[in-house]
Amino acid sequence: MLEKEFFTEYGEANQYEIQEVIGKGSYGVVASAIDTHTGEKVAIKKMNNIFEHVSDATRILREIKLLRLLRHPDIVEIKHIMLPPSPREFKDIYVVFELMESDLHQVIKLNDDLTPEHHQFFLYQLLRALKYIHSAHVFHRDLKPKNILANADCKLKLCDFGLARVSFTNNSPSAIFWTDYVATRWYRAPELCGSFSSKYTPAIDIWSIGCIFAELLTGKPLFPGKNVVHQLDIITDLLGTPSAESIARIGNEKARKYLNNMRKKRPIPLSKKIPNADPLALKLLERLLAFDPKDRPSAEEALADPYFHGLADLEHEPSRQPISKLEFDFERRKLITDDVRELIYREILEYHPEMLKEFLRGTDHTHFVYPSGVDRFKEQFAHLEEGNGRSERNSPLHRKHATSLPRERICPTDETDIVIKRGASSVSRATVQSPPKLKATEELQSTEELETANRNAVALQTSSMKPKCSTRNLLRSDSICASRCIGIIGNDREVHAL
């Protein structure tokens, strides 16, 4: 079985003790493990046959490169990528992450009593991450609750950068054209509705964050459109009919025509749509959800909003220099399989400094092969299969194109590191387990010409309050910080690979 050959021919396998297989799918296998050198719990993703499709391999290359370049407390971090046996013949890669307990989708689903402090701290972290990536001229393009990792101390991290793009304009990342899929429909900015090719700005991510924030406040998706027309209908039902100038910014001609012929609608005050919410939160939400992208604030401007008074701290809101266009020169040319393999191998060497030095000196490593760790892991996986049937929980992911990094949710026994202790402590209020909310219907297939791209999967973490965690149960507690209110319940564990 695949599980028994997890680390085939990879010498670094001896560094990790596999605990259990936590996910399987067309992309490969994810296992939880312990780093025997550090004692740290990690998630290891094996991606199989990544070069079968150049587009999938390019997407993986893009993501591992971005996660190396974008180092920030609110963005997932790759801890290690294993060195392949042969640089010119490898087909699989192994990416190592720290374990994260959950994602924001699960937090919202399992908690209907999040406090205003939770809402504020969550949004603050998301905007802080967005400020950083936008300063690097990177657009995420696929922000949604499942692409935001969460720990029990309320630490959030952006993940899943497989659809992200870098803008190489000379000045600010004001606009750029791309011609592929972007964003799950429910969180997609209206100017992108119906468009394969569109003028992208950082405002597309701001809209997505606004939708996510509204979902935090209400417990359900704000704009769960069934198709493009329905999406535009429910957006305008809330925001009112856009101006002619705003409609002109829509990239798709049919969408523009539909909006121009739409009956006039008056906007609904957010205070009626989301009663009992903090008025300052609603004022900021209104800015984030401006129909016209030019009316939305930048992440930096949003962080300066009065809603964050007492929490915002410029010292903890870093920016960075724009990413060099040389890093993504491959985006500008047509690649063949060998090109992508070489580029991915070069990225892997970033996690092997000595090998990188030799590589840069031009030493030929074509023929080096490391000892196989397969026998050891056959034993470990065999033990897992015999031990209380733990591996039986694994269910295949029925995604056709799950090719990116892992996002599986594990409930580890201890955690490390938090960035804003003040913020974390401020949200450690009375929060107990609540019954799961009505699960909103999730879109799994596309409509019209919009949804054609692959979905990604990623898993990592950072947090720090070192909460003691029941390995699988969701417990009641006085605070998110101390509870498993964002954990996984028994066999209902969801392995997300979008």
UniProtKB/TrEMBL annotation:
Residue ranges of every copy of the Protein kinase domain listed in the record: 16-308
Alphabetical list of Pfam families matching this protein: Pkinase
The enzyme's E.C. designation: 2.7.11.24
Keyword Nucleotide-binding attached: yes
UniProt entry keywords in alphabetical sequence: ATP-binding, Kinase, Nucleotide-binding, Phosphoprotein, Serine/threonine-protein kinase, Transferase
SUPFAM superfamilies assigned to the protein according to its UniProt record, in alphabetical order: Protein kinase-like (PK-like) (SSF56112)
GO molecular function: ATP binding; MAP kinase activity; protein serine kinase activity
Residues the entry annotates as binding ATP: K46
Gene3D superfamilies: Phosphorylase Kinase, domain 1, Transferase(Phosphotransferase) domain 1
Superkingdom of origin organism: Eukaryota
InterPro entries xrefs: Kinase-like_dom_sf, MAP_kinase_CS, MAPK, Prot_kinase_dom, Protein_kinase_ATP_BS
Catalytic activity: L-threonyl-[protein] + ATP = O-phospho-L-threonyl-[protein] + ADP + H(+); L-seryl-[protein] + ATP = O-phospho-L-seryl-[protein] + ADP + H(+)
Family statement drawn from the similarity comment of this UniProt entry: Belongs to the protein kinase superfamily. CMGC Ser/Thr protein kinase family. MAP kinase subfamily.
Protein name: mitogen-activated protein kinase
Organism this protein belongs to: Jatropha curcas (Barbados nut)
Taxonomic lineage of the native organism: Eukaryota, Viridiplantae, Streptophyta, Embryophyta, Tracheophyta
